[in-house]
């Protein structure tokens, strides 16, 4: 498990740290780590460190200061260092001095001989010669997209980039990118990850994140990211004294005559995710029986028998029959995972919420379009949007995406950064619904159930796509993802 802390939390912790350790000492610690990772990258790309060339993009604040200090440490290893100053008059003075004393060169990015881009001739040359570029344009204090000169410089870079703290152009709090931004090979960050490293475009732009301890005491994180080991340790498996009933029975209300596949995928996922028993109730009972003989299938919810949870929504339609299915499931007073048409129905008719038993956990798993129907466009700050909607509707809300966000009504937020896009295939959401339904039936806390399910779902997709999680991937369908769920569960349990 690891956390991500907001810029405000990091700044507060920095202030506390500076009461004990002088600020320049902390900055040197941070910059030294940037230099170490830059040297590693140089070695990877050029099979050496000495006599290689590193160009620093240096903005107006301490982020640029870190880059300048890193340049000084690289000089010690014989690296040629050129700093391009974006705001020469606001450059971190001590950093600049130390780089110069170490034999580094510092020039104005917008120096003489500038072409229409505004980049000076020497600066353009330094960018072209760079084996690695260090991005010290902006860090924790970033606001909005890169300014024009910074954007032009970044656009010119062809060498791999080491970002200091955050890739510039990424919003530290939301991970949103609204314009030009750095795509880093490695991001070296200090004290703790920021939300911008694990959310949205920021996740992709950060590359590999290297966390450096600078002595910050950060407190409770804003966001939590689960590891394989966390998920494996909590994944429900049968004990010697369990029966198929005691582990929790999952009810699946999904699919229709037009969409039997949704029924098969949701039910199949529930079968693979946990032991115990899965009941299916709906018009696709025949295809479900023929594909999944272990499922007890009936035509209607009233005939389904006792369950501990319902996974409901995929393919049920938004007409009268879908509405009736939802009403019956909500009235059953069991834990519910509602997906797809359920969300559209609840968004369109607020009276449907009245059927809900307030004591039974309710999870909703919208994709972005469904979320917009329910709570409006999530915009760039998805965490805030999801957290507010979870509170307003008193549900656990899982917003799907490359980084999936799970918010509880009490404000806790989990993020699952997939790290790849293999789950982006039709029907994979149905699989997720089935996994969550199964975990709810086992009695797991519904917020954690969503986090566990999102983690295993993404892992199953990666295992299915790559054969063993290591090889080059190939596109998969939701059926392959479904079949890989047991291997994903094995993988996380082995890590626990
Ligand atoms: N406080 C400290 O001593 C420590 C801070 N650290 C570094 O300090 C950084 C934070 O430094 P600062 O608070 O000085 O701020 P930054 O260096 O993040 O930003 C400085 C300035 O960049 C400009 N800027 C903002 N948005 C921009 C954009 N979109 N395009 C171009 N320029 C933009 C603004 O003028 C802003 O004031 C951290 O990210 C980290 O790298 C580390 O050295 C660790 C210790
Ligand atoms: N680009 C992506 N990267 C990683 N995961 C993705 C991406 N796009 C979608 N997903 C995941 O795939 C699943 C798609 O669900 P959904 O949109 O409901 O599809 P469907 O309705 O076809 O089943 C979700 O778990 C979502 O998080
Ligand atoms: K940066």
UniProtKB/TrEMBL annotation:
Ranges for the YjeF N-terminal domain?
10-222
Which Pfam families does its entry note?
A: Carb_kinase, YjeF_N
**Xref: InterPro entries:** Carbohydrate_kinase_pred_CS, CARKD, Nnr, Ribokinase-like, YjeF_N_dom, YjeF_N_dom_sf
Domain YjeF C-terminal: residue ranges = 227-492
Indicate which residues the UniProt annotation says bind K(+).
63, 135, 168
Swiss-Prot/TrEMBL GO biological process terms = metabolite repair; nicotinamide nucleotide metabolic process
Organism's domain of life?
Bacteria
Check the record and name the PROSITE patterns matching this protein. YJEF_C_2, YJEF_C_3, YJEF_N
Looking up CDD domains in the UniProt record yields: YXKO-related
> Which keywords fit this entry according to its UniProt record?
ATP-binding, Isomerase, Kinase, Lyase, Metal-binding, Multifunctional enzyme, NAD, NADP, Nucleotide-binding, Potassium, Transferase
Cofactor(s) required for function per UniProt:
K(+); Mg(2+)
User: GO MF annotations for this entry?
Assistant: ADP-dependent NAD(P)H-hydrate dehydratase activity; ATP binding; kinase activity; metal ion binding; NAD(P)HX epimerase activity
The residues that the entry says bind (6S)-NADPHX are: 62-66, 139-145, 165, 262, 315, 367, 430
Q: Which residues bind AMP?
A: 400-404, 429
Q: Give TM segment ranges.
A: none
What does the record note about the cofactor? Binds 1 potassium ion per subunit.
* Enzyme Commission code(s) on record: 4.2.1.136, 5.1.99.6
The UniProt catalytic activity note for this protein reads:
(6R)-NADPHX = (6S)-NADPHX; (6S)-NADHX + ADP = AMP + phosphate + NADH + H(+); (6S)-NADPHX + ADP = AMP + phosphate + NADPH + H(+); (6R)-NADHX = (6S)-NADHX
Stretches assigned to coiled coil: none
Subunit structure of this chain's protein: Homotetramer.
Family annotation (PANTHER family): ATP-DEPENDENT (S)-NAD(P)H-HYDRATE DEHYDRATASE (PTHR12592:SF0), ATP-DEPENDENT (S)-NAD(P)H-HYDRATE DEHYDRATASE FAMILY MEMBER (PTHR12592)
What the protein does? Answer: Catalyzes the dehydration of the S-form of NAD(P)HX at the expense of ADP, which is converted to AMP. Together with NAD(P)HX epimerase, which catalyzes the epimerization of the S- and R-forms, the enzyme allows the repair of both epimers of NAD(P)HX, a damaged form of NAD(P)H that is a result of enzymatic or heat-dependent hydration. Bifunctional enzyme that catalyzes the epimerization of the S- and R-forms of NAD(P)HX and the dehydration of the S-form of NAD(P)HX at the expense of ADP, which is converted to AMP. This allows the repair of both epimers of NAD(P)HX, a damaged form of NAD(P)H that is a result of enzymatic or heat-dependent hydration.
Per the record, the similarity remark reads:
In the N-terminal section; belongs to the NnrE/AIBP family.
For this entry, the protein name equals: Bifunctional NAD(P)H-hydrate repair enzyme
Q: What is the lineage of its organism?
A: Bacteria, Bacillati, Actinomycetota, Actinomycetes, Pseudonocardiales
